[in-house]
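Need residues for this backbone.
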């Protein structure tokens, strides 16, 4: 039986032919990615280092990749990178979509770090990143009186509050003594899905 040429197929059959071919190409890649990743990827990936981390270049040069910070974290918020890039593999990070840093009273990760990649700083001086609000996504823009991000913040009104227009306002700590620590608790508890209305972005 002779095979039909693609150009002789009606449009509906052509679409099915190409869809089946694409599926055969993508399926093995999807299986590979699923097996290689230790945790599900969030919708938007942000790489936050644990509290007290030095600047990224120095951090990568200094960190022992020993995992002691992750072992000591009472919230189990610190994971170790499974990157195939040796520069990043084994380095600790916090993914607020999975579990945010809670700015624990012990400041445990900073105290156990043997390399100096994490420096011991006061709770209010922690600068993991800065939360940013998408007011169009925020449920407050739909008339809901949600303050979960404020209520859950371990720093409280020193980091996040309502402004004069009754919208969520994150306090930028740069140049001041108070403000967002970038712990990610607000992101973890934000009720909007699949993308959170508030996301912590690491400093450059």
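Answer:
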């Amino acid at each position: 039986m002779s095979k039909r040429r693609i150009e002789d197929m009606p449009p509906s059959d052509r679409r099915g032919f190409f869809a089946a071919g694409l599926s055969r190409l993508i399926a093995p890649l999807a299986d590979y990615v699923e097996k290689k990743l230790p945790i599900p990827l969030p919708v938007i990936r942000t790489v936050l280092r644990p509290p007290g981390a030095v600047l990224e270049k120095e951090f990568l040069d200094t960190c022992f990749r020993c995992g002691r910070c992750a072992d000591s974290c009472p919230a189990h918020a610190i994971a170790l990178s499974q990157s195939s890039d040796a520069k990043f593999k084994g380095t600790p990070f916090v993914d607020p979509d999975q579990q945010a840093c809670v700015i624990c009273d012990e400041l445990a990760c900073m105290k156990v770090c043997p390399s100096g990649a994490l420096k011991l700083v006061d709770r209010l001086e922690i600068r993991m990143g800065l939360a940013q609000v998408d007011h169009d996504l925020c449920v407050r823009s739909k008339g809901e009186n949600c303050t979960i991000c404020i209520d859950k913040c371990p720093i409280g009104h020193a980091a996040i509050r309502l402004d004069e227009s009754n919208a969520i306002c994150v306090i930028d700590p740069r140049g001041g003594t108070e403000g967002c620590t970038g712990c990610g608790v607000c992101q973890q508890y934000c009720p909007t899905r699949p993308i959170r209305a508030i996301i912590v972005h690491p400093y450059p």
